[in-house]
Amino acid sequence: MTFMKKILPFLILTLGWFGSLYSMQEVHTIVHFNNEMFELEDPGHATYTIHKKYTRLNSDASGEYFSSHYNSFYKIKDIKATILDASGNEVKSFKKKDFKDQAVYDGFSIFVDTRIKYVDLSYPSFPYTVEVEMEIEMEGIYGFPDWTIQQYNTKTLENSFICKVPNGYVLNIHRMNTEEVPSQDVEGEKDVYRWKVTNPDVIYYENHAPVSSLVLPAIRLSPSAFEYGGLKGNMSTWEDFSRFMYELNKDRDEISPELQSQIREMVKNANSNKEKIDILYRYLQKNMRYVSVQIGIGGWQTFPASYVEENKYGDCKALSNFMKGMLSVVNIPSNLVLVDAGDDNFEFNEVFTESSFNHMILYVPGEDLWLECTSSDLPTGYLSSFTHDRKALLIAPSGGKLVLTPTYNYIKNVSKTIAEIHLDQDGNAQVKELKSMSGIMQDQFRGIAVNSKKDDVKDYYTSAYKVAPKDIELFKYDLRKDGPEAQVELKMNFARLASKTGSRLFLDVRPYKSAIEVPEENKDRKLPFSPDFGYTLIDSTFIKLPPNYEVENLPDETIGIKKAFGTYDFKAEEVDGGILIVEKLRISKVSVFAGAYNQYRDFLLEAKKAQTGKIVLVNRRP
Fold first, then answer.
1. What is the pLDDT of residue 17?
2. How many other C-beta atoms lie within 10 A of the C-beta of residue 201?
3. For position 104, what pLDDT does the model report?
4. Residue 278: which H helix or E strand, with range?
5. DSSP labels for 556-602?
6. Strand 65-70 with 183-187, pairing
7. pLDDT tens across 383-415, in order?
8. From 418's CA, which of 140, 325, 522, 603 has a CA 20 to 30 Å away?
9. Three-state DSSP state, 91
10. Distances (CA, A) of 516 to 79, 208, 445, 555
11. Using the 8-state DSSP alphabet, how is residue 14 labeled?
12. Inter-residue contact 404 to 388 (CB < 8 Å)
């Protein structure tokens, strides 16, 4: 859903920065120079130019492709690229006519007016150098280009940015992870801001670092007054921007009289507003589907509710607006909300306003309820990991504000497994399992269960076992509609789940693969470490011994580890007729500073080591 992301060509200018899997502590790209200039003629017109020269040292380097999106508002005036070999000889050059041009197809939009020009800048031998130039004309301004000072694993020799605005125009500036300030002067009718850095230290990518907006140095710019598609707005404050978005989308949520009557009939027996919301949300999910239409100002303004009602589809704006309209019919107020969805979501600042949103959801303040209107299967009021725990902009007629979406922590994100393993004397086993999942821990399974055939869901689920089952007698699951919960019930038979040697059986303490992911060792960690979310794993396994078998060896009977970032408890004990193993891992969503990174890693290593123990059973009467 790209309607709110800054789809300005200067932001979608693709040099492949995040397309590589970086090797640790290696420089992959050298930027010889990067010169950018943005010149605002008036609130609705501007030009943007970029001239860059960089060397790709290996296949992990960025910059394999050069591309730019464009549409009726953003036009590529000129674009070109040149490839130089290791000796500096020109081996390829590309002019505007040589760039491939195609419509942007995102898999869910049925029509877009955005296109892309791109060129493949790969070369068979490293190192090689690329020089690119581009000029963009903008007729409609909704955001200004940001100046990214450094990228991961990149040696930057020189980087500069110039911004020219009309005299007296208020330019909003936000420094991110940098202390760089511009020089300022006046050139005729323009106020000029200049930034330049030379030879900054390389920033190396480290797994599970915070989102890039909290690490990489950049200067964020945004307009005060702006014009887009003939509409005037202001981005001086979040209240100003929210008011503009409200005016842009107001009076577009009217529901037809026929559907209004149907809505009232649907909820006439509901006993509460929450029940009404649930009924109407289910109606939305069952009858409307998510399809995007991005043309002209439609990338910013919702289609009217009548469009969704007639066509039975819409994008995130249109579906959220349609749901808002249905709630209005039954006198339940709600607010549209802009959010930056996905994993590498942007961290918004309370005092710096910008338009880096890519998604819209709905908030019902009277019930403190959030609605993801593009999903056909999420429970009412649940957002999932796609938009949880982040700042979002609530749109209101008097001017909105930044709000925090719900956070799902280790109390809500729980996976609990209860298993029984009945062994025979040859090591074969029947396994019964009941698993309950809640919160984010059920997101992936729910998505697979909804979008896949049952046999594929079964294969996905049973792949968690170290040994494939011989056959599956029972496999059923339930996806709760009234909350983010899922349950799976299994009954399986395994051939030689335990290995046999003489009179002994050897069995892993866990028949299923470990869910603990231990990050790589890094003794010189520079960046904080942050788990994606907090969660709790609870496993309880009862192992029924075969006749005449006794326990000869159990792993460490009791382990208890408590740290600020999590806890791990393990207990194995003999009980009547068998062995009971109980294991609990809790991970908190905290930022682990770099100096404690290896403590965090050691904690996970110790927990995972407990899972690798062996149980030895012996037949005393073979």
1. 33
2. 8
3. 65
4. helix 273-287
5. -SEEEEEETTEEEEEEEEEETTEEEEEEEEEE----B-GGGHHHHHH
6. unpaired
7. 999 999 999 999 999 888 999 999 999 999 999
8. 603
9. strand
10. 48, 14, 17, 18
11. B
12. no
Apex 512 CA angle, 509 and 516, nearest 5:
90
Q: Which two tokens mark 188?
A: 């005729």
Residue 269 exposed, middle or buried by CB count within 10 Å (0-12, 13-18, 19+): exposed
Q: Contact 173/181 with Cβ under 8 angstroms?
A: no
Strands (E) located in 146-213 = 147-148, 154-156, 158-166, 172-176, 183-187, 190-198
- Residue type present at position 190: K
Alpha-carbon torsion, ordered 24, 26, 29, 35, to 10 deg = 80
Size of the chain in residues: 622
Residue 550, C-beta contacts closer than 8 angstroms, at least 6 positions apart:
617, 618, 619, 620
Helix (H, G, I), strand (E, B) or coil at 234: strand
Q: Provide the token pair at 152.
A: 């991961």
User: Across residues 556-561, what is the average pLDDT?
Assistant: 86
Position 184 pLDDT exceeds 50: yes
CA nearest to 290, candidates 483, 157, 468, 107: 107
CA distance 315 to 361: 11
CA distance 229 to 207: 41
Q: Which residues pair with 542 in a beta bridge?
A: 420, 580
Contact 399/240 with Cβ under 8 angstroms?
yes
CA-based nearest residue to 285, from 257, 322, 231: 322
CA angle 170, 174, 178 (to 5 degrees): 140
Report the alpha-carbon angle 196-201-202, nearest 5: 110
Does residue 123 surpass a pLDDT of 50?
yes
pLDDT at position 111 is 47
